[in-house]
């Protein structure tokens, strides 16, 4: 079955380098993207480009999806000429997008009805990390799905972390991670405003933190971006951050958990959107703190 | 002048190992602690123990203070038989406690009137780090004070980070750091509750975070404490965390900056104190999130 | 056309007394309720009871709906044998439930396609106010719809307040009103805890407020309920309050507006639900404040 | 003893009309104000004007204070030539300023040591209400003090509400009231932004609320100010609102009670001050909500 090409659907800023890595690992690849232009570089590298998701998928084969949101994932999977009907008996769908746990559970059930497997496998890392095979992958789903997906995931990241059988679990972990990252951004934004208003150099605080008590990449990189207010070009757009925090709040409501810090982040994001900052990097929520302190 | 003994005042869980390190570095030491029993181990190691702060201090010499809070620092410095009057012309006061920037500015002015120098030099690190000379020291004050204090600080930590001439600046940085740490705790607490209520193992999330996107000690250590709810014995008591967040809010009010995340932390701490948890580790604010979600 | 009976759909704690008032005003009435038992009292008073919504509705006639939520309203209107298809050309649908503005806009468009009118007309008031014709009605929609609905609304309330042509506007006003009421509850809850923890009689504060600076029914009634913690039986269930605050947050997100106070109310409601308090009166969110202060 | 003149200290926008009312009631009055110009109108009306607080006060007589804040009250009471020492044995101090409960308790104890009584009696109402004898007065302290103060208070307000013996209680009630009022402002501000961003007339919502579910003066008056954003001239300055919310937070911390809504109000006030709005009416916090929604 592995002689069949793997179908890779969704060639955005994350999907394109991931697909490239599968090709580089020697896996035959069929690719589909709504905007065909993005598939050209992969065609040059040996991928077969198709005109629909269904054409990319082989019955009983493997399909990897990396699309923008829940609606896009549902459309490509369950829509007419979708992945689910085409994969059918014996297939495997590896879903790597950041979506809600509910969508994963629903798709897993739909695939099960058709005799195919579903693995939820979202990733942590920016496009550069994707290109460098440095993604962190979190997975959840059936053991069979994990075994069969392993060579594909190994070719994409630097480590796979398992969160059990519920196909929604990996999504909850991915959303929790993004929540934690943006919480760190908010905390740094408030601290940087506090030192700036106290007459202290913002950059000095940022450097100190990254070299000492928070010597890990997220604090090191983000504190520099925040100290300089370097929100363009965006590494991860603010409007995508909003999508993720919205999903965090949805899960929190479903499991009946108050998350005041998630609410605060949502307020920061909404205020940013109300000022037309959807295309800034998501760290740009810092401007809301700065403005509230009269710094701009 | 360096042949005089250094006076070390305040032998709590941080001060005692710090004083020990000065002794081990070959510096003659005179020590004072309100509770004399805590001075015995240092006496055994060669320190001279005195019955008052004033007796420990040599005119024109160096005094290091590591006491509980602003009131204690003011009392020991400006009270009868205090450090300020005794040090007098040519002295140096190295103040390492976590106090408000205002107190540092006030003490610096008082010392200046008496012809002595004042260096604000609070530290990051728990008692184990103090014992291992692994403290991170932040300093601010006059250049003269920094030059003269350097050998002392070098004997206490693994690095000195400078924040300029305003004696209050180092305190603002120290308070900002503690604010950032407790913000990370709150974020982890909410995320852990979210995964637990979603049926996912808390410890699995903690391990994942520490190994991947937050591979720095604060996330690694605190996520484990939080996952296990291991709040006793306290590494840093919740009531001390309250003191520090209160100081953060005081500075924010003075510089006219809203800090909603600091307010949230204050609410968590107050709720913890209202339930009698002042002696738990400050990470114990997690229980408030858990209880709000019906987890306990 | 007015000789046709008016169809009244939804005989819950609000709908039943409202339908009764239409009957008492001499309007012929056909009623439908999912749970038929609730229709008996109205049958005894002269209403014709039908087995489906469609059977209650006369083509070209008037249908009033007072159902639990958006899903119920959509089902009864657009589902098989729904109000929309049955009303058809020349009909009028008066929608009095608390639903989202989006649902009203959608239903108005669906009715327009079928040649019928739609009026959004939610109400303020508890069941006792409904029985006493003391409801406050807010309306929005086309002028034609308002003219034709007027006799019906006059028979139900003590005043009609108009908010223009957008069928969603009345819903936004209704949701804003409930947001304001629950905000007052939260404020009173915090104030009552403050005085109680200061050794002052809660009831004394409640009486003072209602007699002086807040001499209006919401503060008068709710401060007494809150002072006594008399949350059972529920006048308006906490889980219904959650539904409304959820709708407020949905609108806020759609119009890109941060509403931190709405977020706080949502946190209070979620914490209440997590403790199994869905059947308490919505003022029962007070318990969350009290518990956070160690009062219970 | 009642033949002695009553001393009235503090002739600000509230104190001046209150003193005028005592004169109009036929009570002989001696007045003192730091800024002597403000005493002229009262002199014309028959008051004796003195050059210090001490000169205004008769030993064993009655002194009424209505000053700006805790510091001013302490200075005028306990400072050199202060009210306390001059009143002495058999005197009564009626303290009507908005101050902390701690200050009242401290002053009551100081007076007791000198054989005089202290009554805490802060008021609700703006200057117009003071002029019209329409203040609501809340009191706490000893029974003796209440009996002797009654004729004075009767001449100043439309009702006295008693909160027991603890001299701090009346202050807690006063602070709670101001907290409730500003909470209502914040709620209205958010609701008005929600309707405005939904395309609905702000003034229509304001009128509706005041006529229906919130038919009491605070909602009626403030909703109109908010709808029109008429924050100048200030009825009650934003910086005074900040003082009061700061006192609320201080009490909350002393009694160990989280008050997230008070924290939100404080954030709104701080953001307003950071934008230089200290002289606007305190309802001007609304601008923060509006700006966060991109409305200005």
Automatic annotation (TrEMBL), chains A, B, C, D:
UniProt domain 3-hydroxyisobutyrate dehydrogenase-like NAD-binding: residue ranges: 168-283
Sequence ranges assigned to domain 6-phosphogluconate dehydrogenase NADP-binding in this UniProt record: 6-160
InterPro entries to which the protein is assigned, alphabetical: 3-OH-isobutyrate_DH-rel_CS, 6-PGluconate_DH-like_C_sf, 6PGD_dom2, 6PGDH_NADP-bd, HIBADH-like_NADP-bd, HIBADH-related, HIBADH-related_NP60_sf, NAD(P)-bd_dom_sf
Signal sequence interval, chain numbering: none
Domain of life from the UniProt record: Bacteria
Keyword set includes Cell membrane: no
Active-site residues per Swiss-Prot or TrEMBL entry: 174
GO molecular function annotation: 3-hydroxyisobutyrate dehydrogenase activity; NAD binding; NADP binding
Name assigned to this protein: 3-hydroxyisobutyrate dehydrogenase
